Amino acid sequence: MHRAVAVWFAEAARPLPWRHPATSAWGILVSEVMSQQTPVARVAPVWEEWLRRWPRPGDLARASAAEVLRAWGRLGYPRRALRLQECARAVVEDHAGEVPEEEAALLALPGVGPYTAAAVRAFAFGRRATVLDTNVRRVLARTFDGEAMPPPHLGVAERRRAESRLPAGDASAAAWNAAVMELGAVVCTARSPDCGSCPLAAGCRWLAAGRPADRHAARRRTQPWHGTDRQVRGRVMQLLREHPDPAGVVEAALLEALDGGSTPPEQARRAISGLLDDGLIARTGTATPRISLPRT
To answer: What is the mean pLDDT of the segment spanning 83-102?
Structure first.
């Protein structure tokens, strides 16, 4: 099983920029944060520009929040950008500017959870770690459990089973993580799996069972995008990123622009209020308040 996936990966791996052998641990960490809930095709050009601009944690730590949010562009969930900057500052202050290797130290960094810590340990340092994103979970659920999709929430038992499938050595385990993640991304996909191209097809319990439907489907929440507060928040951020005046936009004019896009006034105000609370935008002035990206 390990050999079959390794052979497939050697031939089929996409040339993602962060897979270059010279990529630093910081570059790997940035790629993992950017790739959360975002397709890699959108991430790759932003990642490349980001690393050209801020190749080391100290470079990002010294940037202004406005610069960071503009560079983040339309990757989505812009709070991740500010958390990444907080992470950079912690790396500088607590680890002399070098991304730590040990799990506990990684987990102590702002914005780094169990998945990101495991991915950095595996892909930056070649360590044996259980990397479980949605792609890996789906491959393992189908191959070994005969399930179309894993449960909505990752549990302890699932994590232990995944760890038991890892090769014993550091290097081979890291390679397995990368290969299975790629397999889930391009072959064992959620909607259109290409079982004829899968190196695990011969032993896949889900395929042998006739590819049964997802028994957890009713438990999964699907959130529409159009018309949601999140869409309006994204529109506010886009308008501010594109605005040429660093002092921002008169709040009344911003509300008018959003209303012109068919956003109800109360929803626009709610989006602005939420972004202010999250520190993603700033309000200045009282008589004629202006909304801008953060100044610091």
So the answer is: 98
Q: Which of 17, 109, 92 is nearest to 57 (CA)?
A: 92
Render 25-69 in DSSP notation, one character per residue.
Answer: HHHHHHHHHHHTTS-HHHHHHHHHHHHHH--SHHHHHTS-HHHHH
Q: Which two tokens stand for residue 272?
A: 């602005």
Fold entry, domain 134-219: Endonuclease Iii, domain 2 (1.10.1670)
Phi, psi angle pair for 250, to nearest 5°: -60, 130
Model confidence pLDDT, tens digit, residues 110-140: 999 999 999 999 999 999 999 999 999 999 9
What homologous superfamily is domain 24-123 in, according to CATH? Hypothetical protein; domain 2 (1.10.340.30)
In the chain, the percentage of residues whose pLDDT exceeds 70 is 98
Query: Is the dihedral angle over the CA atoms 3, 5, 11, 15 positive or is it negative?
Result: negative
pTM for the structure as a whole: 0.90
Residue spans of beta strands (DSSP E) within the chain: 249-250, 282-284, 290-292
CA atoms of 166 and 295, how far apart (whole Å): 46
Catalytic site residue from 11, 32, 101, 163: 32
32 annotated active-site: yes
